[in-house]
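Practice problem: predict the structure.
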Amino acid sequence: MSKNFAIVDMFKLILLGFFNCLVLTSSNKVIRISRSVGENEEIESKNKCRCVKYFQCDENNLINTSGKNLIGVRSSVRPQKIICSDDDEGTTQYCCFLPSTIIEVLSNNTTTETSKTTYSQHDFSKCGRKTVRPTKTQNYEAEENEFAWMAVIFAKTKFVCTGTLIHPNVVLTAAHYVYRVKNKSNLRVFAGGGVDLRSTNDEERRVVEFISHPQYSTDGTLRYDIGLLLLDEPYVLSNRMNVICLPPEGLSFENTRCETAGWNKNNPLKMHKVELPYIPRDTCETMLRSNTELGSYFVLHDSFICAGGEKGKDVCKGDGGSPLMCEKDDVYYQVGIVSWGKGCNQENVPGAYTNVPIFKEWIFSELMRRNIIII
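Answer:
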């Protein structure tokens, strides 16, 4: 018996009742079942799979729940096995399988909490306090010394990304930009409240160590997208040089309008800012499922929070590393780091930010190992 006939017989057993619709191609072994929308439920039931858009399936015929290859840099996805009918927009759909971990979550509706270790909270006397209140009406223009904890990161003369001072010796940023710099010894930091890099008096520091989270994901999902830069010399805190606070445990930012600020790789000379609403994780996950190609099975990882979703107000490609800052009682806390998004400036499509509060234990422990203490 030939190989093709054996494969056909196998799928006839699996797809009993649909054998009259089955077609097997020799090039990619795609099973073409019915093209009728009404029969998709029966296809799913027979095969114990789910009909989703073709790009929401991975190469193993599993539903892409992590956003891999759909966030950040896009890449093509190989053809899948079982074809459903096209969706209402005419997009091809494949019948793919839920990863077992997701099936358990959907069935049991349970989540696993990560064990926590309590450290003293950040308690610099003036951390997160603005010495300058903005006077400009445009929400995208930052003023001199408005965000005195901002830092800009270069590799020699090439702009890399934005970061923030959380200690006179430490810059907090996203891992994904710094990770790509081949020679980390070329990294340097400018900080001091300046907004225009052409005329700034900001002080330069060299980076002596880059610490990325050990679980930082380079597979395109950007999970654990956080890094620390240790400087060769501490900055001296003043009215124009400050550190931002890390949020204490239990402080909620729901229903809060926050700010993000920084330099963009497409226009790295002038600092910009924008005000955005903080979006709870569950709400964000629902919005991304409904309004983007990530699809209805996308699971927003715990290492992310969200902000934005207002038309015309957003961060965009090149803003990575910038802080999401929320104000409580005249104190600014860094609750997020710009990480990834689906498009820019789109209504009901918030951006994803590294979830800074859950990384406080990791930040403090890494610094304590180097005799740097935030108290």
